[in-house]
Amino acid sequence: MEKAEGRNQTIIMEFILLGFGDGPELQPLLFLLFLLIYVATMGGNLLIIELVVADLHLHTPMYFLLGNLSFLEICYTSAILPRLLASLLTGDRAVSVKGCIVQSYLFGIISAAECLLLTAMSYDRYVAICHPLRYSALMTSRVCGQLVVWSWIIAFLLCTIVYTFFFHLQFCDSKEIDHFFCDILPMIKVACVDTQTVQLVTFIISAIGTLVPFLLTLTSYICIISTILRIPSSTGRQKAFSTCSSHLTVVTIYYGTLIAVYVVPTANTPKVLHKILSVFYTVLNPMINPVIYCLRNKEVHQSLRKTILKVIAFRNRYRNQKIELKSITK
Ligand SMILES: *[C@@H]1O[C@H](CO)[C@@H](O)[C@H](O)[C@H]1NC(C)=O
User: Fold this and answer.
1) In Å, how far from its chain's centre is CA 28?
2) Domain spans in the chain, listed from the N-terminal domain onward
3) Per-residue pLDDT tens for 97-133?
4) What CATH code is assigned to 13-296?
5) What is the pTM of this model?
6) Which residues line ligand 1 at a C-beta cut-off of 6 Å?
């Protein structure tokens, strides 16, 4: 506060998000690329939700959680991509300070919820593999629903703590943010008041919010893998591993990119590299997850095949009816 008044700076109401540079020939290309990614992400995740809701074989805690993860991924990309697409299309990179704060707040809640939901999913796999006999008693649909609801509540509370500090920040002079969406750290960098408290709170909360889920997930997988290794038959081992391999892949990619974006960067990391990794973390992950589950999970695979066959059968019946109708009217 004092610093701002002392230097007599004007308070700004708008940021300029620099995005991916200003090569005019690059913008349409990027627009197309991100549009494709957005459509693929929405399509893939909606498909997973459709399969989980419609197919009775997939009415198990593991797939309910997967359906909820897909819903989260849809929220996740929708918090970032539409605005990026609009700015690539129109060339207008200005975004109001309030809008920017809201975007980063939503993004924060959704990423924290994703972290917690992935942890819930690894707990589900832990119970399934390490305590198979107690699985149906421990993972009831009520427990499953509670895990989902609490993921959202905790994510909301953690982010709200950070943002009660953040809403008081003021920004002046430096309007430019060198990123493609409003993330909290680049915004803190351009604030013109003392940001020490905010930085500390952000650091502590995000450390708790990611480290605790990470350690819980890691512990689950240590137990899972040691249990699997103790299975005597190799087919049994393979079978047990196949039920958690998709989730393990998703979790590894998630934490791998998370660490690359938020933990590794130092002053020497080139900005471009940081942006590319952010694209991976924010935009590509949600697109890849349904692909991993569709390719690697036999049950999702089968359900997908059944749905496609049903659609084809339905279309054939529809076509036959039309032909019949035509022959009648003639
Ligand atoms: C999310 O989880 C709840 C609770 O298990 C479940 O009832 C619901 O169907 C899930 N949603 C989706 C889209 O799978």
Assistant:
1) 25
2) 13-296
3) 888 999 999 999 999 999 999 999 999 999 999 999 9
4) 1.20.1070.10
5) 0.87
6) 49, 52-53, 64, 67-68, 71, 141, 144-145, 148
